[in-house]
Amino acid sequence: MSTNPASILYDSGPRPVAEPLLTLTSLHKALADSLRLQILRLLKSESFSVLELCRILDIRQSALSHHLKILLQAGLLSTRREGTSIFYRRALVHDHIDFADSRRYILEAVDILPISTSQNRKIRQIQQERGLSSLQFFRRNADKFREKQGLIVAHDQYSASLHDAIAGLGLERQARVLEVGPGEGQMLAELAERFQRLTALDNSPDMLEKARATIAAAGHNGVEFLLGETRSVTDRQFDLIIFEMVLHHIPSPAMTIRDCARLLAPSGKLLICDLTRHDQDWVRESCGDLWLGFDTDDLHDWADQAGLEDQHGSFLGLRNGFQIQLRMFSKKRDARVR
Q1: What is the pTM of this model?
Q2: Domain span holding position 91
Q3: What are the pLDDT digits (tens) for 226-275?
Q4: Is there a domain that residue 16 lies in?
């Protein structure tokens, strides 16, 4: 009678020794290929669909799918569905998983690998295409912004919680505050009642003019309006940066959070108010959303990579199956951006 060796490899606990051995074998197999290492490097803090990865790596989809399957089996990648597309990102390394320290060490080594000039150019093209899609939506719907947003949630359904979070910071009127993507300026006008050094940043000229008109009609002075993105802002620091229902319109949320970490004063705070993960794909066409909300782990991991740490989180139940999350982040002491 023959016996499978794996069936008798037990230690003193209930778990077969063969199980972690198989995990380690799968991990080493996944890493024993230069293309798979490139994939892990590209997905350090970004999510890409299969077709986007094919463009960046200049590879056929059938060949890429084989490599993605091996990385998924090794627990190095995770997926999320965005409408009809599957997006890939690096899996979070939790302390309880097998060989967690080894995985972190390997990924740190992978992150040192350079990204070629050609690949960086293609990544920028993809991000520009995502951004253009969002800009075109707001250009077409600038006069109907509040109506479109109301399909998901109205500002007054969560504004009290948002203002409570801001009030809890105890900031002075002279605090430097940046709102990214102010929309028609409703929140901006409310912030102008509280702060005297307020900046509004938007990459849509149409929406920025809407916000400017709202501030003028409210009789507020001293609000600065900037046309651009977080990466275009230099030589400034802010005590508070606010995203109110805008991160799901941004082409690269992870990169934007890294920009915010750079723009925060040493004791500054990043406040994000956005949707939790959902599967209602109709918001892409009707509301111009690029992302279907965010898992809590998504925001935590992107912030952690940027040298930020969680300070506060709360969740609000809303109609139509949507849920809003309020997340507060601050700079880590002696943080190293990964």
Answers
A1: 0.71
A2: 5-115
A3: 999 999 999 899 999 999 999 999 988 999 999 999 999 999 999 999 98
A4: yes
